[in-house]
Specification:
Layout (H helix, E strand, L loop, with lengths): L1 E2 L3 H9 L5 E8 L6 E9 L2 E10 L7 H21 L4 H4 L13 E3 L2 E7 L4 E2 L7 H17 L18 H14 L9 H8 L7 H7 L6 E3 L8 E4 L5 E4 L6 E3 L1 H12 L17 H15 L5 H5 L1 H22 L11 H18 L1 H15 L1
Antiparallel strand pairs: 1-2, 2-3, 3-4, 4-6, 5-6, 7-9, 8-11, 9-10
Helix pairs in contact: 4-8, 4-9, 5-11, 8-9, 8-11, 9-13, 11-12
This protein binds adenosine-5'-diphosphate (ADP), 2-acetamido-2-deoxy-1-O-phosphono-alpha-D-glucopyranose and magnesium ion.
C-alpha cells in the first residue's frame, strides 16, 4: 500500500547510511509483529529499494541478541548458498550496518533495522496452486538442511519457550484467571475446547526427553508469507522473518507451515464452514519438505509430522485466545474481535485435522518411503 513519504522514516534511513532522495514509500501489512516499510531512493539516477522495519520490542526484548542471531545466520547462509551455486543477494537477507556500528538503531524508544528489498518477488497469504505449497515445503526443508551444522549453542533464545505448548497452556490459564479484558465469560466454549486437549501438549517434549527427536536449528515461524516467491517461476527463493531462529524441533516448522498454508481458507476467516485441512495441500507440502530433508529425520520425527500440524494449530489458537483475554497486547489486530476470530478458526482446523489424522499419517509414510 503506497503512503506519503514520512520524513521520520527517511531520517531513520540516514542512520543506516542510505543516501539519495526518497521517491516512494509503502507499507507491508502481512505480518502480525513488526512494522515493515518499503522505501525507494533515487541515488544519482539509480533506483534503490530498502526494507525498513520497526522491531517490536514488546515481543523481542533484546534487539542486540536478536540481531546477533540473524546476522550470524544470514552470514552463514550466504556462504552455503554461494557454495551451492545460488545467488546470496536474492536468496537470503542482507542487513545494513547503522552509524553506531550495530545492525539496529534506536530513534527515541523505537528500534529500527534496515535490509535489502528482494525485488521481483511476492508473498502469498493463501495457496493459489498446490505447486506453490510444494515449493514452500522445499524452501523450508532446504533452510533446515543448510543449517544442519550451524553451531546451535551460539544462538540466543529470542522468545523464551516460544513453542513450549504446555507453557502456552499455563499462560492461557493465567489469562483466564486475570481476565484483564473482562472477556473470559464470553469464551467458555473455546476455553473448554482447548483445555480438553491439554494432555497432548507435552508429547514432543517427551519424545525429546526420551532421545527420539533432536534439537535442531529451526525457523519457528514457517507461515507461508515468510517465504518470498520468484515472480517468474513461483519458486520459493528466500526465507524471511528470521527473528525466531532458535534451537527447536523440526516438527515445529513442519506443523506451523501446515497450520497456515494447509488451511482451505485464511487464518482469520470468520466463516468456520470455510475452514478445513486440505489433504491435497498437506501432501504437496510433505512432498516438498521430505524431498529436501527426509534422510536427516529420525523415525519419531516422521511419525509425528501429521500430529505436529494439529499441535502447532492448537498452540497458535491458544495464543490468539490468550491475547484476546489479555486485551490484544501481542498480535496486531484490525478490529476488536480479530484475535477471537483467529482462535476460533484455528480450533476448527484442529478439529478437522484430528478427523483426518490417519489419512495424513498414511500420506507422510507414502512420501517418506520415496526419499529414503
Ligand atoms: P513480521 O514479523 O511482522 O511478520 P516480516 O519480516 O515477515 O515481519 O515482514 C512482513 C512482510 O514484509 C512479509 O510478509 C513480506 O510480505 C514483506 N517483506 C519482508 N522482507 C522482505 C524483503 N526482504 N523483500 C521483499 N518483501 C519483504
Ligand atoms: C506471528 O510475525 P508473523 O506474522 O510472521 C507470530 C507467529 C504466529 C503467527 C500467526 C514472533 O507471525 O508465532 O504463528 O503470527 N510471530 C511471533 O499468524 O510471535
Ligand atoms: Mg512475517
Amino acid at each position: 500500500m503506497a503512503v506519503d513519504i514520512d520524513n521520520e522514516i527517511v531520517k531513520v534511513c540516514r542512520h543506516f547510511n542510505i543516501k539519495g532522495e526518497a521517491v516512494s514509500q509503502s507499507v507491508f501489512t502481512d505480518g502480525h509483529i513488526n512494522t515493515t516499510l518499503l522505501i525507494t531512493f533515487d541515488e544519482d539516477g539509480e533506483i534503490k529499494k530498502y526494507l525498513v522495519q520497526g522491531i517490536n520490542t514488546h515481543v523481542f526484548k533484546n534487539p542486540e541478541e536478536l540481531m546477533e542471531n540473524i546476522v550470524n545466520v544470514t552470514t552463514y547462509l550466504r556462504k552455503k548458498i554461494a557454495e551451492n551455486g545460488g545467488n546470496p543477494e536474492r536468496e537470503t537477507l542482507t542487513f545494513l550496518k547503522a552509524e553506531n556500528g550495530k545492525y539496529y538503531f534506536y530513534v527515541g524508544d523505537k528500534c529500527w533495522r534496515a535490509y535489502n528489498f528482494i525485488d521481483n518477488s511476492h508473498t502469498c497469504n493463501k495457496i493459489e496452486t498446490k505447486e506453490y505449497f510444494e515449493n514452500a515445503g522445499r524452501s523450508f526443508g532446504n533452510f533446515q538442511k543448510h543449517l544442519t551444522d550451524y553451531p546451535m549453542h551460539t544462538l540466543h533464545e529470542t522468545i523464551k519457550d516460544f513453542h513450549h505448548t504446555p507453557k502456552r497452556f499455563d499462560n492461557l490459564e493465567q489469562a483466564i484467571k486475570t481476565n484483564a479484558a473482562g472477556r473470559a465469560d464470553s469464551v467458555k466454549a473455546e476455553i473448554e475446547f482447548a483445555m480438553a486437549r491439554r494432555p497432548q501438549a507435552g508429547r514432543l517434549l517427551k519424545l525429546y526427553k526420551d532421545g527420539l527427536i533432536p534439537l535442531r536449528v529451526t525457523h519457528n515461524d514457517t507461515k507461508l508469507n515468510n517465504i518470498l516467491f520468484d515472480d517468474e517461476t513461483n519458486e520459493g527463493i528466500c526465507v524471511i522473518d528470521l527473528d525466531t531462529i532458535m534451537p527447536g524441533f523440526s516438527l515445529y516448522d513442519f506443523g506451523d507451515a501446515i497450520r497456515f498454508g494447509g488451511n482451505t481458507t485464511r487464518e482469520d476467516d470468520d466463516n468456520l464452514d470455510n475452514v478445513d485441512i486440505s489433504l491435497e495441500l498437506f501432501e504437496s507440502y510433505a512432498e516438498g519438505f521430505l524431498s529436501a530433508c527426509a534422510k536427516a529425520l529420525t523415525m519419531a520425527e516422521v511419525e509425528n509430522l501429521a500430529f505436529s500440524a494439529m499441535l502447532m494449530t492448537l498452540e497458535c489458537g491458544i495464543r490468539f485466545l490468550t491475547d484476546y483475554l489479555d486485551g490484544d497486547v501481542y498480535f496486531k489486530i484490525k478490529y476488536s474481535e480479530h484475535n477471537l476470530v483467529r482462535a476460533r478458526n484455528q480450533f476448527k482446523l484442529v478439529y478437522e485435522i484430528e478427523k483426518h489424522m490417519d489419512e495424513m499419517n498414511d500420506i507422510v509414510m507414502r512420501i517418506y518411503k520415496k526419499y529414503i
